[in-house]
Amino acid sequence: MNGAPAVKVTYREAVRAAMREAMQRDARVFLMGEDVGRYGGTYACSLGLLDEFGPERVRDTPLSEGAFVGVGIGAAIGGMRPIVEIMTVNFSLLALDQILNNAATLRHMSGGQVGVPLVLRMATGAGRQVAAQHSHSLENYYAHIPGLKVLAPATVEDARGMLWTALLDPDPVILFEHATLYGTEGELAEDAGAVPIDRAAVRRAGRDVTVVGYGGTVAKALEAARMLAERGIDAEVIDLRTLRPLDDETLVASVRKTRRAVLVDEGWKTGSLAGEICARLVERAFYDLDAPIARVCTEEVPIPYPKHLEDAALPQPGRIVEAVLATVGGRG
Amino acid sequence: MTSAATLEPPPGFVPLDRAHALSLLHEMVLARRFEEKCAQLYGAGKIRGFLHLYVGEEAIAAGVMPLLDAEDAVVSTYREHGHALARGIPAGALMAELFGKVQGCSHGRGGSMHVFDVSRRFYGGNAIVAGGIPLAVGLALADRMQGRARVTACLFGDGAVAEGAFHESMNLAALWKLPVLFLCENNQYAMGTSLERSESQPNLALKARSYAMEVERVDGMDVLAVQAAARRGLDYVRAGRGPWFIELVTYRFRAHSAYDPELYRTKDEVATWKARDPIALFTALARERGLLGDDDVASLERGADDEISAAIALAEAGTLEPVEELTRGVYAEEAAR
What we know:
The complex is a heterodimer of chains A (332) and B (337).
Chain A (H helix, E strand, L loop, with lengths): L5 E5 H15 L3 E5 L15 H5 L4 E3 L4 H13 L3 E8 H4 L3 H8 L2 H4 L9 E6 L14 H5 L5 E3 L4 H13 L4 E6 L6 E5 L11 E4 L4 E5 L3 H14 L4 E5 L2 E3 L3 H11 L2 E8 L4 H13 L8 E5 L8 H7 L3 H12 L4
Parallel strand pairs in A: 2-3, 2-4, 4-5, 5-7, 6-7, 10-11, 10-13, 13-14
Antiparallel strand pairs in A: 1-8, 6-12, 9-11
Helix pairs in contact in A: 1-8, 3-5, 9-13, 10-11
Chain B lengths: L2 H5 L10 H26 L14 H7 L8 E5 L3 H7 L3 H8 L17 E2 L4 E5 L5 H14 L6 E6 L6 H12 L4 E7 L2 E2 L2 E2 H4 L5 H6 L4 E6 L3 H16 L5 E6 L17 H8 L3 H11 L5 H24 L20
Parallel strand pairs in B: 1-3, 1-4, 4-5, 5-9, 8-9
Antiparallel strand pairs in B: 2-3, 6-7
Helix pairs in contact in B: 2-3, 2-4, 2-12, 2-13, 3-4, 3-10, 5-13
């Protein structure tokens, strides 16, 4: 680290600082979405930006996800650098046509003529008792699609730094912000800025097992690692950060070292990102493994409203610990 | 009202002269003969995939496209060969695209439904019905935010009006007063489903009007009426007053695509509309006014055929993209890792 002093900020403040800086630095950048202006953003990420930048650059839209995402695509093609906010990932399905059939497709389909430098931000994930139409983790839907880049900032540093890198990218980038993270606090250097968006990060180094998470599950994986340390198990925790393209190198290097892997994913297990990572580790590190790869995913149910059921549906540190113990077998 | 006032041509009409007549007829004849050739080449296996022909609807492209400036943008649909030719995309680049050759305007990647030419600001060729409409609104927003006095012409069919993207986009364009000329080519069938069987309100201009948008409904078989309406719309949009919507009532003479047995309409209905063939209508009018003669028409047709023959030769001689390049261009090359 350099010498700049660190300050405590919330994830929400980091997102806001990133958007403010982007709009200060580049006149082509503007923010568009439902209630991003007068309301200040559903999660208050854009609070104050309307006053600072005016209604041309902080645009409240009607409840028309398909249209305003498509308008963002058109504006990006037309030379702007839009940040389009979708309130929550469940609503992004209303715009999936535009994201897949236009944003992700136009460059290849046009023979390289039409690039779409669009940044989409949306909240994802469960944990706030908002039930089955506001809680799902559908990051894997988007990570499936060639032409997109998909990011999951899990720390204030990434919430602050990924946006600018995404805006510099000539292709569409989707940022998934786990809704339980907005109020969390972290240390951030006062001069914090852009960060790379093509590498996973080792958040805790360890020898005995690799625990992989992203977004909202990184903190749970770290908590599990602390619990495991008390039992003498030294877990390495990897934060994927980028869900497409996946950083195979970091994953494989870690598993070659620890020889065991537990994959934590708030998506449903069937067809999950955890399944994709499992396949890649089997393809590239099968002979380095000492135990079957384990997955800790969300139960295959729509997320229910009552807290005890929601908690039971989601990956929790206790479940991660159990999976690790089963994986390391007698070594615990 | 005085008799003198009634003799004034309505806004948007300009007197037709010989050069203008020749150029309108050229656009329509080129598109017609190009596509008739396409149908043959499809039968011969040179063109594959879906092939949606514009035959019968040529007056719209021929009327509108010459009014657009080079800086204006066009967003089109999967029935876009006529739009592309009238926008100035060379017949050879278009035919090579249909052949899937690298010399095609989309590098052969898109085929009939995905014609792109950014140098002419022609942004597809969108085969999701209504999928291009939000994109057109976004292009217009970018122009507005960057202080550029441009228009985006957005073409779509009657089927698009049933899609949510249409309604959401009309609302946004009108709400934000964006410079879009919406051109609804109402050929009266969404594939095989007639408007009467799919719309509670088959007057499509009325739907757009409900978004507080200026609208007009015109005879899409009359190239002069199309051009006059487009001129009125463009004047309004260029004045920065907001979007304008034109419903162009037309008819598709051929099947929806090469796979369509046309079970949903009668031969009589098709014949009735073919009697209003836009090319025949305009040719008759121009000859009646003494602007064109037999020789002119024959020479236009010969010229178009020569252009199309050269286009086919270029497409035939074109090269296929090497398989090694399959994965190129999914992302920008400079960002590729």
